Structure formats: C-alpha cells, structure tokens
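Example record

One chain of 72 residues, shown exactly as stored in the release files.
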Amino acid sequence: MKHHTAFLRFEAVLDYCERRCSDKTLESAIKFGRQRDWFDSSNRLTTSGEALAEIIMQSPDFMGDAGKEHSG
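Predicted structure tokens for this chain:
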C-alpha cells in the first residue's frame, strides 16, 4: 500500500502542475514542478512536494482512485 500512496501523491502534484501550465504537457508540468521545488532532478517529490501532495489529497476536489471500480 505504501507504493500506491506514493504514486497517488506524485500523480496529485503532477496533475496540479499540469493544470497550471499553458500547454498542458507532461514535460511542462514536470518543469513547472521543478521550478517550484516540488520535484527533484530525478522527478521524485521533494519534501515540499510531499507537503503539497498532502494538501491536495485532503481537498474535497481530489479524485484519487476515481477511475477505479469499487466493489461493495
């Protein structure tokens, strides 16, 4: 479950960056995130990126696994 949570954090920050870029590409989103110190040179979340991810994931707008089917 740890890897899944780390992936969700990464995706949350990447999506946040992509929404703020004018051309909406992965490259631009990563560059945007690096400029703000949310991604390091290896495209891993920095400490500030992890903090941003926590804020995003607590937002009522965060979808998380919205595309995943849940059986109940």
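Notes: The radius of gyration is 13 Å.
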